[in-house]
Amino acid sequence: MGVTxxxxxxxxxxxxxxxxxxxxxxPEVSKATRARVQEAAQRANYSPxxxxxxxxxxxxxxIGHVIPVSTSHEMVNPIFADFIAGAGEIYAQxxxxxxxxxxxxxxxxxxxxxxxxxxxxxxxIVHGPRVxxxxxxxxxxxxxxFLVHGRTSQVNTPYSWLDINNQRSFRRAAQFLIDFGHRxxxxxxxxxxxxxxxxxxxxxxxALGAAGLASDPLLMRQGEMTEPYGYxxxxxxxxxxxxxxxxxxxxxxxxxxxxxxxxxxxxxxGRDVSIVxxxxxxxxxxxxxDVPMFxxxxxxxxxxxxxxxxxLLRLVNEPDCGxxxxxMETSLVLGASTGPARA
Amino acid sequence: MGVTxxxxxxxxxxxxxxxxxxxxxxPEVSKATRARVQEAAQRANYSPxxxxxxxxxxxxxxIGHVIPVSTSHEMVNPIFADFIAGAGEIYAQxxxxxxxxxxxxxxxxxxxxxxxxxxxxxxxIVHGPRVxxxxxxxxxxxxxxFLVHGRTSQVNTPYSWLDINNQRSFRRAAQFLIDFGHRxxxxxxxxxxxxxxxxxxxxxxxALGAAGLASDPLLMRQGEMTEPYGYxxxxxxxxxxxxxxxxxxxxxxxxxxxxxxxxxxxxxxGRDVSIVxxxxxxxxxxxxxDVPMFxxxxxxxxxxxxxxxxxLLRLVNEPDCGxxxxxMETSLVLGASTGPARA
DNA sequence: CTCAAGCTTCAAACCGCTTTGGATGACTGT
DNA sequence: ACAGTCATCCAAAGCGGTTTGAAGCTTGAG
Lengths: 343, 343
Hints:
The structure is a homodimer. In chain A, 42% of the residues lie in helices and 17% in strands. Chain A is α/β, with parallel strands linked by helices. At the A-B interface, helix 4, strand 1, helix 5, strand 2 and helix 6 of A face helix 4, strand 1, helix 5, strand 2 and helix 6 of B. Strand 2 (97-104) of chain A pairs antiparallel with strand 2 (97-104) of chain B, so a sheet runs across the interface.
């Protein structure tokens, strides 16, 4: 499909050199010629072959996203679609392509090396960082610009990242419930190897500590963030001798599960039990309206995608701009799922 | 990053030709040489530059996925992540790259032409087909292999597709409720411009017709498939003078909304009201267990992704294998959300 | 009128790989 | 000893762009 530069040049009686320069805005082309070339290119519907162009320039004009899929628990991260949508917007504007790899985590070592080795991408976005994630060192070694969506603890190599302030969010959320008189607050967390889960727990524990409340392992749970997971957590915890009166949920989906569990037991949110959830503002799970259904720590993961893309492109184009990082704060929005603890 | 073929050849005292042939399994290389080359390639961590390779071969070794994002209703399709995961598996096995474009539907015309014109992909997967979708003609015109995930009505050009049997699924689902004595069955559908929504409605109407039941516009609704959408539908429909006793939901998320709406009114699923939903088996919205929460027409969208990828790769590699199509049947699994209509 | 300077334009090399069309040499049969 | 096979290997020409170094043609100053 498509005319080549050479053909276009021939049809104009010009050399490929001149046509290339005319189209790429180089100064050494006369105004008249440039106009003529541009017009012809337009009409012939010419667009330069990406592969040839990037072979010649040495830049792939593409960013790689690697999404790990655990072979054990095959969940695809539901926030992925919205993040991608945000990043995609920016790539489109900047003339970059997004290339995606879905890799079973066993093959990860290989996947990154391969992507870079074949020169397929100029930069990489790392999804779903875990605690002490080996990918940071691996990618640093490979010498390619990369940006982590999230962070990874216990890694000493400096690296670029974009994260939300998970710790502060969950501290505030817990604090909020405590201020409402809740003394038994449960944390329904994500998988413990995920770095964000760790930070959230830490914020939660901070708040408990600051209020002089002891933490109770029975009120802390971690797992894959599905609806049934929330449901079970609610059911089981409410049957404890000393059940919680408030819940912190790690995602809207978990919050849905919690609510179902609680409502099946005849408990009403905001009156009998409270929930504060984290809300990534996923487009298909809106939590808005006059009074949002859930009180939530809110941060748009789509916006995060946009920012991450911008940062990575900067890292790619200004090699020495050093590790970049951005910590996005969340807002705590009041919804219908919280109220004072019952006496 | 990375050794080049030439360097590798030089280090071995061989010509690039021989090295290339040795690595690509051509017969005119001695066993000994091949082994030596392979070993060296391994050790040097050599992987061929994708751009150079595809420039030379004329094949991009990449498949493009274009996901449209309406500028009006900015929802990112939640089934997207799982579909992609399935397709990605196959691409990885077959040595193809997946390139993704997120495009506002205003730019679609341009997006496809651009992708093809630059020779960036060998084939394209079309997501979210609408009724009379112009993309089929556009892509046929462009002359690139493509496969539609779903179908589009009122288009005469033959094209390749992979779809689930939406009509039959919803006919069965409606039939099932009717057999249980339900006379007032509501359909909470997706956006009406989406082709799948149209087919589902058609199946639903078939079942009503076959049972001699009149359809009631008050019991049919279409919209973006979010949780609050389901909630509102439930609340509003149950307040009708002659409310439904059964619901057909277009997705798990809608079903969650319905259930919340109903349960807020003190109605119990499977006893007071019934729901049959479509379940795409999204990894983060499981509907399984001994007795699944919802009775559902079930079909794995991840498996659909796998099959779609395989079909498209076949179309790419066997240009004349003609338009391919596959209609996946769904299974109707019995869950806890249905029961006989109350007398 | 001549020559350096300034504009335009171009030929050719190159990016890293594949592939066509030999070339080389060992081996065979006569 | 000689032509004919066969098995190996290689030089060189692309693929479709970019980019370097230089050439052709005007100009204006000397």
